[in-house]
Specification:
A hairpin with a 4-residue loop joins strand 6 and strand 7. This protein has a five-stranded mixed sheet. 41% of the residues are buried. With 483 residues, it is α+β, with helices and mostly antiparallel strands. Helix 9 runs antiparallel to helix 13 and helix 11 packs across helix 12. It contains 23 helices and twelve strands.
Amino acid sequence: MAASDIAKDHQRPLGGITSACRRLLPPDQRRISSDSAPAVLALYLRDSPSEVLENPYIKRSVPRRQQAAPVAAATQSASPGTPSDSTERSELSEHLDIADRSAEWEPGDASTLSGEAVASLEGKLREQKILRLRLGIGDDPHTLAEIGQQFGVTRERIRQIQNRALSLLVRRARRPGTPGNMLARLLDLPDSGELDEESVERIAAIAAAEFNAPGRTSIPIMLGVAGVTARDARNAASLATKIAKRRREAEMANMREEKSRQRADRTVSRWIEHAVWPDVAPQSVEPEIFHALRLTEPGEAAGSFFSKKLGREVCYESGLERDALAALEASSAIEWYQEQPISITYVWRGRERRFYPDIIAALHDGRRLLIEVKPLMSMPVALNRVKAEAGRKYASFRGWGWVSVDGHRTENDLETYAIPEASFRAIETELATWGHLTWPQILRLRSDTSVIGRDVAAFVIQTGAELSLEPHYRIYPTMDVGD
């Protein structure tokens, strides 16, 4: 049983439980943080002496001169490991194996680790909600003013709470094994905290690919989670803005060339081919009836460019949206397009909500295509799948096509992806054994087997499993949205 479950059963704060676990340890093993105490206590009580002494977490947590101390006799008589024992060690791996292992970056790592770090702010539900809303975890990203309206305070007060929470996460990221420390390792951040242009460009690309929030919001928060000070994080975001501006200017210049048009045509043709098209005739609509229904606050939008095709400025909220709109701008198959054109109602966990599909595009052949832009590894998330189903029904009723895209890739790529048999069996076995998969378990599968992130995402889509991010990363065998 996890410490959080014990706290819930006994109606005690989590901090009280972890402190009690620390006090139960022998005096020579108490030189650890309270957060780590439950895991160390479990190992002390249930492992054999040799397993305890060889465990890397004990070696880090207990002074070297004390590692040779004998383990209590009760440990030697402990019962053999059970699935519950292995589960606790699986949860402990979040604090040991992954931090010690040289991990390679895969799509979804930054957003998942950032969400885990935010969820670790125990007892600070307000701070958790603000950071989730800012990053767009489980929902669309929100501005400071929008969040202030929800809490009944000013945007400046929300900024203060956000900065205070980030200061706490910066300090926590210094502790090995925490989500923030793991994120710093994966981002390959320098010890000085100062980032050069090449590093900032790489980090900005990761933020654009994994968060719907604009870079000026996602980059400082992501770097704060990874332990970068507020000043260095702001400097990095400022440099990223300058880099993005230069890149946009270069990209728009390239779009005027024939090569850019051909590339855009290949991408858009793939979207059209992979879209879900109904049998009914499409409703004829003109661009004049649409306008952007969800506009970001001035200064919060990621950017804009002038569209020659539309004769106006086109705004985007993320790097993925920018690339999608640029493809539609350059493609010869598209007559016109409109960002955030409509509002669609859907039901999630028994509550009615609304979302705004990113783009509607009019093809020269008279068809209309509704487009949702999402990172490929976010498409299997349960909430996003519910939104996509609502979008498909809305489009089908009007005779329009529907497609979810990430650059040239689409959700259809996950639906048709041939998962290697060994990877499929490894995921299936782990899921059947424990009833659900956690983020540390996924990382261990990727390290110890041939499983890659795309295998996991395709497995969720193809088997009807549920991938939830609230409050932690979990994969369950079946989809249950509770509509």
